[in-house]
Amino acid sequence: MPVLVWSERDGALGNSIRTGRRYFFSPEEYRADAEALDQALDALLDMAWHALTVITKHENGKARFNSFEQVWVLGRAVHISEILRHEALQGEERTLLWQALTPKAWYGVRHDATQETRWRVLIPARATKWQAKPKDASAYRFLEVGYWLREQQLHDAGEVFGWKYSNAYDLFHCSSLRSYELRQAVLYWLRRQQPALRETYRKAGFRVYQQALSKRFPARGPGSALLPQHYPEDELRAIVCEVLDSARDAYFR
Amino acid sequence: MKAGQFTNTATDMVQVVTNIIDGYKMGPLRALAQEPVQNALDARRNGKQQVEVEYRLLRRATNSGAACLLLTVTDKGTTGLRGDLVTAEQLKARGSKLKPDENWAAFEAQGYTKENEDALGSRGQGKAAFLYHSNVPGETRRMLMLYDTLLENDEYRFGMRFAQPADQVLSPPLFGEKATAAIQLETYQLYDGLSVPLGLKPLREVGTRIIVPFLNEDEARSMRPASELSRWLQRCWWRAIQTGRLRVRVIDENGDAEEIVVPSWWRDLPRKRGKPSSKGSWLELSDDGRACIWGDVTFGTGHQIRRLVLLHSDALHEDEIVPDHPEYAGIQILRGSQWIETRGARQDFGDYIPIDKRPGFRGYVEFDKHTDSTLRGAENSQHDGFDARGKKGEIVRDLRDQLDSCTSEFSATMGWEAATSITTQQVSPREKSTHARFMETFLNPNGRKPKPSYNTGEDEGTRLLWDCRLALQYPDPNSARVDWGQSLSNVFVEVGVEPSEELIGSAHLIVEWVDDSGKAKEIFRRDDAVSKEWGKDRAQKQFELGDWQILRGKASREQQIECSEPGECRLRAVVVYRDQRVKSAARKVYVQAEPPPPPEKNPVTLSISAVNISEEDKTRIDHGEELQLQINARNRTTQPGSFQLTATFEDNVLARDEPIELEGTPAGDSPRRQAVLTEQLQLLDPHQSASMAFDGIQPMRMPTSSGRFTISADLYDENRDHVAHARCQVYFQRDPGNSQNNLPFEIEQLNQKVMWLMNKDLDLLTYSADYPLYTEMKEIQRQRRALQGRLAFIAEISANGLLEWALRPKESGNDSNYDQLYDESRSHDIWDAFNRGLENLSKTAESPIQFAQTWRETVAIMLEIFAQEND
């Protein structure tokens, strides 16, 4: 997967090619493919930026960026742009795309090297690990979470995770609880709760519910074969309501 | 004044105390620093924010004028030793259960449990921590402690425990004025010849005081201010002191006092306002050090670190009391503000922290309440370590992984990576090749390939795939036992080979009897049993051999087997092709002997095999290639059973509560692998078109273009109880690990203490280049033998790693790896011995020693096989 990765050294921007494919002398052999992808990423980032400006709330005329919204917007933009179907990205891991996308947005540089500093707001302020460890897949976890969140509409996803990126991040780490079907079932349960309890859920309760669900759907070991996505919708809803009701009654009543 | 009645118990208390204190790996002073304070904090009085504990040394003189040192440990802000007195008989009648507020009874009893409390803390650690330091004069070791308490209702009590060595408590204790009078006595007479100089003031505040008389001078020295006891107190309790829950003072006989304070590096750490970030927030320290604080970090299955702080400063020096057991240099794990253990900068994080940075590295981690309570389940009874084994230890293993990850991040930001990488050496190509050859010798990935050594003479590039099946009936269908005079009936052999047209000449069938000593005797032979069949892909022949009688004496006719010695024997069918034994099948027969019973643990197991059938030598599966998936079960019980199978491959449900029937295995016979589900799937990239379609093969679109995906299966019995679980990884459009080959695990050098280590995911075997045995072995310049110099070391650890790789998943009933290692068809005697070793290891060993012996024997056999096949 050839990608073009922008970097900054001593104030000057430069780029290099990274690829998972086998090459003869250097990844530069794939530069043409990588540059085509870089151009496509311009459009993706423009789309994401426009979406973010519509979503972001303002206080006293100043935008208040929310990490949850930022990562959702990026994930959704990757999905809608179908960038993963790009020829340069066939048959390889997504992490190289994140390695290209993140510095490109952060340094705000288009394929023709013109500056687009407004893209920087797409990267959550706390996502800084990629700067120290640019090749570490875990440094781009925020994009992986965003891409995962894309499956739900923003408002639905926001409700499920209490508009908190940290909640989404935590749930993403429970591999057995990642399915879209489960998130929809949780949303179904949540919308049947009293407003006060929904507030508790958002603030402190999320982890309690997450623990209850991960006990019911363990990620490994006995009982881990059948995960939420394997159940019919009605059955899953019934299971999720039972699990979350009992967690609620045990901890919050 | 003379003591009241002592009540004897049938316990050698001196031995009990010694045993308990010997369990503290950091010594008796840590126990003394830990237990009294912990008990005081547990007994904090409602409405009191802070508990105070005072360790005070007092010098007294006995009647004979000899010096007597006393240690008193007094707590305030606690409830005191309240609650009813409970005699041993009453305790027994109550099933050794005490109510939560029966502190007095708890302090006097041994071997009880408290309601609403787990078993920790009820094994007498608190009492032992005091008693251990008392050395009552006399010829034998005796221990004594006295205690007085003032309760909220102004009740005063005075009690005593004497280990001489029988365990004695003062019964009944003294109350009210009698108690206060006793405590003030210059000399408290226990009995003729033994008195304790007290002369203490009664307690004025609610709380408890423990008096330990007859301290050794040497021990007393380490209990004075700024001595070892103070250092342990700081290590154990600094966090509780910092949060204001605790105050601890140490005072000597001259009145010089020391207040235990928070260590300077934590004291000076600027308090960050607000919640620390789960990504870590960095701080610059005044002494040029740096710290990083993480908050609310989730790890494992929803556990939470409330705060993790890592710090490094060159201004800090090593400050450890006990060698090899880290205290400050590392990350202290605190449970409920109490230090339990430290993950050491050298021992555990040596890969991330350069040698010169280790003395100045400090850290601590604390948790939310739920996690604290789960961690407590994995804590040892000495509260100085965690057990990372088993289900309870899962949280500890997850925590260690999390700490590793944060330390690695800290190291990277500190710029230490380059420095530490110097200490990591590379595995030499020759060592890698030895490891790979070792794996290839023992693993048979597709379960039916002949080993490289079985050169069958066919044209290069063509492999003949043989199979051989041996069926028979025992006299008792539930047991492999056959007594003299009884017969094995309906002996049946089936031999197959493909591709048939590649066969040159024919193959012979031999049936042999292998006695208890391993000696084989041919009892039947059919030459030219299998030959080429034109126009057919597969040649297959069946042989009905009828009944065979086992005799102790001489055989007088055909179909009789002489077997004069009782024991574990085998009937074996062997296919011989071009003078090579290419395949075999065997059944065990216990002649005049009782076979071992089926194992109690995991009598039913599952295994999953997932093979790329488009390109058979490749583990990786690319877009459009086919996967053959087979789930097998083994029933080791003698009875057939009905089960329900659930199996999934990522989002696809392969089976849900599918009823299956498993045949039983006669006791002593090797359990048969029974296929319960077989699927052929064509795996497709979600972002590529599915243009390739094969008849009868189900296409499956993978969730992503590349990754490691899981096939998972659960088996339930008729009562819906879970009986077995198996999982298997499928590498779609990516190579397993970093390698381009098909090895189940890679080998790497790492700075570690142990000789070898298999990681959690069973895909990496590490060894230490500093391991003495390795360093003492020669590096080979020209290899003449398979086992030579350091390569022998590599072979040995590969053997160990392979056994762990095969056996660890069996703990949850997963035979997937084991099935790749265990192959009955290898008929050479040495392979037989290897198979027996595997079988014995897979049974529940009666003792760890027996298990270790079998393990060593199996490793030795593996090395012999490796040498034979590769020299």
State the distance separating the first and last CA atoms of chain B: 86 Å
Number of domains of chain B: 5
Structural class of chain B: alpha+beta
Q: Could you spell the SSE succession of chain A in H and E letters? A: EEHEEHHHHHHHHH
**In terms of quaternary structure, what is this?**
heterodimer
Largest interface: A-B, 38 and 37 residues
Specify the number of helices of chain B: 18
Per CATH, the architecture of the largest domain in chain B is: 2-Layer Sandwich
Q: What is the alpha-carbon Rg of chain A in Å?
A: 20 Å
What is the radius of gyration of chain B computed over CA atoms, rounded to a whole number of angstroms? 35 Å
Report low-confidence residues of chain A grouped into runs of 5 or more: none
The counted number of beta strands of chain A is: 4
Number of DSSP strands of chain B?
Answer: 40
Query: How would you describe the shape of chain B?
Result: elongated
Total tally of structural domains of chain A: 2
How would you portray this structure in words?
The complex is a heterodimer of chains A (253) and B (871). By secondary structure, chain A is mainly alpha-helical. In chain A, 53% of the residues lie in helices and 8% in strands. In chain A, a hairpin with a 2-residue loop joins strand 3 and strand 4 (62-64). In chain A, helix 1 (31-55) packs across helix 2 and helix 2 crosses helix 5 (141-149). The termini of chain A are far apart. Chain B folds into 5 domains: 6-83 and 119-258, Heat Shock Protein 90, CATH 3.30.565; 264-421; 425-445 and 746-871, no CATH class; 465-591, Sandwich (Immunoglobulin-like), CATH 2.60.40.1930; 596-741, Immunoglobulin-like (Sandwich), CATH 2.60.40. Chain B contains 18 helices and 40 strands. In chain B, the strands form 9 sheets. In chain B, strands 1, 2, 3, 6, 7, 8, 9, 12, 13 and 14 form a 10-stranded mixed β-sheet that branches. A 6-stranded mixed β-sheet of chain B has the order 15-16-17-20-18-19. Chain B has a 5-stranded mixed β-sheet with strand order 22-29-28-24-25, with no helix packed on it. Chain B is elongated, with a radius of gyration of 35 Å. The relative contact order of chain B is 0.07. Residues 419-424 and 445-461 of chain B have low confidence and may be disordered. At the A-B interface, helix 7 and helix 9 of A face helix 11, strand 32, strand 36 and strand 37 of B.
